[in-house]
Amino acid sequence: MVVAHQVRSSFIKGQIQIAIGSSYLITSQIERSEFLGIFGSMIDFRFRGATESDFAAILALNLESEHFLSPLNPNKLARLCREAAVFQVATSHDLVAGFLLVFGPQADYDSPNFLWFKARYHDFLYVDRIVISEKFRGHHLASTLYERLENHALAHDVARIVCEVNIDPPNPASLRFHESQGFMEVGRQSVPSDQKIGEQKIVSLQAKALKHSAG
User: Fold this and answer.
1) Of the CATH numbers 1.10.238.10, 3.40.50.12780, 3.10.350.10, 3.40.630.30, which one belongs to the domain with range 50-209?
2) Which residues neighbour 182 within 8 Å (Cβ) at sequence distance 6 or greater?
3) pTM confidence score
4) Which residues of the chain have pLDDT under 70?
5) Exposure winner among 19, 53, 83, 142, fewest CB in 10 A?
């Protein structure tokens, strides 16, 4: 999506280090695996805008969680990348640890959940998907990506961040996570299942209103 406030900014292009500790040069998969297992709490995550060179890793991560997400293929991913207001990857030692894909109200996107929000709000950022690699879970990476998104939204005077969470079939972990992030249910709807043709699923439409400082 291209947000109403032209949100392609340094949020996408910048990099920060959020982990404690030094950078490690891990040259082999075995060494990298041992490092992640022993020194996981010291992982050096970096954040930047997604590029075409990340697409293979992003598609693999999406496939990893496709039971909760709509499928992606290279053509669809390239189109969504062009429409995205924010498309971030989190990396560790050149591995894509997770990604966040977000659209604004001006995006050309046919998702029924995005369209639900677009029919009701004129000012929002819609989280289409956030995916963390199973190898990097447990390091609060999803929370960090959401925190960065919220700071970006506040800097651009966006009124709210919105998303949907599956409730039938259920995704209790995602419900708990979004509740902890301050999201509240603003509606429900039945939409076609991404996994089974002819079947429906029920989603909870959620929003987090952002508090902007006066003056």
Assistant:
1) 3.40.630.30
2) 208
3) 0.79
4) 1-42, 195-196, 213-215
5) 53
